[in-house]
Amino acid sequence: MESATRDAFERAFGRPPVRAARAPGRVNLIGEHIDYCGLAVLPMAIERAVRIAFVARPDARVRLVNADGARFGPREFDLSTAIDPAPRGDWSNYARAAAQALAREHGARCGIDALVAGDVPPAAGLSSSSALVVACTLALSEANGIDARREMLMDLCARAEHYVGVESGGMDQAASLGGQAGCAVLVEFDPVRATPVPIPAEWQFVVARSAVGVEKSGRAREAYNARVAECRAALAGVRAAPAARGWPSTWRALVADIEEQRLLALSSTTLDGLLSRRFRHVVTEGFRVQRAVRALERADAAEFGRLMDLSHASLRDDFEVSCPELEALTAAARAAGALGARLTGAGFGGAIVALTRADEAGRIESALRAHPVAARDHDAVFRASAAAGASLGS
Q1: pTM for the full model?
Q2: Is residue 172 among the annotated active site residues?
Q3: pLDDT digits (tens, 9 = 90+) for 292-304
């Protein structure tokens, strides 16, 4: 634990911290908006993380202080099975989500004093919110003597985050908990599991944040939840078609058992324009993840980049979650020589990720930093390396 963190904790709480939890953010390489459909995705944990210095309390009180106190003020609440939420968009709701889930499912009753810090930029599409849920879950689990398997925590954290009102899937939490250095993570669901897939050393991913921030529990919540509902309706519509009699009932089984073109042909004649587009994105993105894993395993950077480009086009045209700023950044990355570029995260703003050869990454970075729609702080453009998953330390 850094001395500055220890000093800040002592100033806030009048005693030293005992333990620290770390939970990384993530960059999703491919497989967007399909985790809540139960389809596999391919993110990687990144070196930027949310960190919590903490000490257990003898009562149920949870006291939170954020190192960025100018933006995120101190918060307090009592740990219980029914924790009242703070106002919509309040940063403490992610801690409340973790606390309520642990109280309900594991009988957690012991609170913590906690100092929250980190370098995952908020509202950037890099999963700062889920990293906070994971870090709080680890801290409260440690304070309450809860020893849980990583896969169980992946599931718990994913369900816990619904507390903030977003019907999100489990990719972010699984990536944060299951990341491995040097590896992407193939995340599958029902049950959740995370399988590392090594990234070739000569590959480099560059992330660029747009000037458009996006907070899933804020202004983008309704649009995000609408996509979830539309995917549900699209699946039901196709399954109701006479030609689909006997077909599987889940997205995962459909993609596993039915040919891609057959699925697309039936949806195009069964669904209206909007639901047909949503269905097409989910199906094609599900198959793209499979192809991307194979490309990664054979170190085929050109094919992986091509699949990233196709994913972005589908997110723009069929899922309608891109925006002019993300379009401009992906175009700038490709013009500078990137092998592929796509929005990463929920969309509606946030960031893009571009694939390049390591020896060409500087040119991509320079082009993105110079673009007028990029965010203007010092860490808006950076090279993202696959990092280890969440951990506890002293």
Answers
A1: 0.96
A2: yes
A3: 999 999 999 999 9
